């Protein structure tokens, strides 16, 4: 142990005699040349202050035999984002110090910043590996999965929910089918992780599935009969939560397309149209935790002569917005937009279009929100002014603007010739936010005279200052026989993830469900068969991807 110069010390009882004035004025030494005896209790924190650092000033090293300094250590930091821990299955990590062959584990319960409990000796090499975590999502260490303690930055772990696809159809024998698929889109090729058969519970003319993600659970909605709407919750792994429940039922009606949206306040709004002696568009709010009805089914609009079809719904702020087609008994067509919250709905906008004496059909609305913007996309069937259909146009409206914008017009898409066939033509859209500056729209070309959707396309749309302006639509990509395998699809649905967008398609002729991976350059990133050829047939398939 190093000696003190010109000093006397007693460790037990602790009397310390120090000559000189350097370093100890805080101990009230009076005079530079006067020796001063200081009595301090051995438990005093002042002793800790003096002796806690083995290399503190002239005291040298009092805590390490031989006078060596302890090795410096450094933390290994972790950043976790995108993780959904709804099944109480933590994300488990293992840190392996390859320099001294030790390991330690860390369980992460939620997104945030963390460090392994024991720091590593600076300069040691290490690696981090992923263990178990809640399924239904894909997690990876995107940066700094290995490195050197003290020099390598934070390890970044990013998780992303896998794709969920609901598909409903009828077999050749007329039996309704409802399927729920899980797809790991981060794998190459894509891997179907779930293939669930859901009990329909009846014989509707169309199963018409709807699928909504809440951030913790899915809500699957379908028609178990033309008179009844059912629901079922699933967790992120597509494991059923509770039992199926009835959302709405009414004798003597035929329910049309069903749409739903999640409200973080703790509820869903479900919107549909129905036909009977009195036709109507309605909504029902239900609990996001139990599925129980909140209040009763509320009529948005009703009539004994007008018909209502193709409803969609979104949430903007704390207000719901819905849009659907209206057709009068005299053949006048319009697209109606309403807002509602808990009571009566309020008319927001009525869209109409004419060509000569023809009232053009406006149909298949698709609503989308981002921040304060509400986008409405819909199909407009065009005529020559004398009742002859000659094309279809994809239209868009930003915040229910007075004059909608034209996205794209098709006069003769693949397999659909309205001029020569005298059939109605529609472009049925599905919209998703690709990134801060782009929307992606997928749409199906529907030939009413043939009764089938004959082509699936995607169209990139540029957002400028939060709005869609003239000329915002890019170059479309058309999916034809070479990608799908036949020319008879029956509806598509679109969703986007961090780095890619995905389109699900039901193919009636090929008896399959497909997944497309489009890009914004007119290329098709990939085509996967989610559900292979079905020997029982797939008639009138409808897919919804989340």
Fold blueprint:
Blueprint: E1 7-10, E2 15-18, E3 36-39, H1 45-51, E4 73-74, E5 77-81, E6 91-97, E7 102-108, E8 112-115, E9 120-121, E10 125-130, E11 137-143, E12 146-148, E13 155-161, E14 163-170, E15 176-184, E16 191-197, E17 210-213, E18 217-225, E19 228-235, E20 240-249, E21 254-263, E22 267-275, E23 279-287, E24 293-303, E25 307-316, E26 319-327, E27 333-340, E28 346-351, E29 354-355, E30 358-359, E31 362-370, E32 373-383, E33 389-398, E34 405-410, H2 418-421, E35 425-435, E36 438-447, E37 452-464, E38 467-473, E39 477-479, H3 481-484, E40 489-496, E41 501-507, E42 512-518, E43 524-531, E44 539-545
Parallel strand pairs: 5-13
Antiparallel strand pairs: 1-2, 2-3, 4-9, 5-8, 6-7, 6-10, 10-12, 11-13, 14-15, 14-44, 15-16, 17-18, 18-19, 19-20, 21-22, 22-23, 23-24, 25-26, 26-27, 27-28, 29-30, 31-32, 32-33, 33-34, 35-36, 36-37, 37-38, 37-39, 40-41, 41-42, 42-43
